[in-house]
Amino acid sequence: MKKVLFVLMACMALCFTGCSDNGEVSSDKIIGDWACSTITEYYLENGRYQTDVEYISIYVSFYPDNTLSYSSEGYRMNGNWVLNGSTLILSFKYGNEEEYEKYTVQKCTSKELLLRMDFDNGYADYNFKKR
To answer: How far is CA 69 from the centre of its chain?
Structure first.
């Protein structure tokens, strides 16, 4: 009887996990004012993985009309954002050129946002808290 109960509970857990984790992130949770105080970089150097933590003040506000405002240590700019599944793309204009930044949403709750940016030999995690 214990085995049947265990198998039944395991199946239920798999069903609920599969239904709730489809890789989609709600735009409603992204919208708002966020503050990032740490960026953790993980990268491969000389055949070994290294970790660097940078303490920084980044403030981003995501608005319902898919615009955003960004400020960091006295620097301010505006841009746009698009969320597609768990991929968040930010775009900023510099003169006549537009630059894009692509992030993967690793975690998104009403109070915490973890964004990952991949690069050639590693990635960086941006840890945001709701303001």
So the answer is: 16
For 83-112, write each residue's pLDDT tens digit: 999 999 999 988 899 999 999 999 999 999
Cβ atoms of 130 and 36 within 8 Å: the answer is no
The domain limits of the chain are 34-130
**Is 131 in contact with 34 (CB distance < 8 Å)?**
yes
Decide if 35 contacts 129 (C-beta within 8 A). yes
Length of the chain: 131
**CA dist list (Å): 21 to 15, 62, 106:** 10, 23, 12
List, in order, residues 6 or more apart from 28 with CB less than 8 Å away: none
What's the mean pLDDT in 5-29?
A: 49
For the structural domain made of 34-130, what CATH number should be given?
2.40.128.280
Cα(2)–Cα(111) distance, rounded to whole angstroms?
39
Q: How far is C-alpha 68 from the chain's CA centre? A: 15
The yes-or-no verdict on residue 55 having pLDDT over 50 is: yes
The one-character DSSP state at 46 is: T
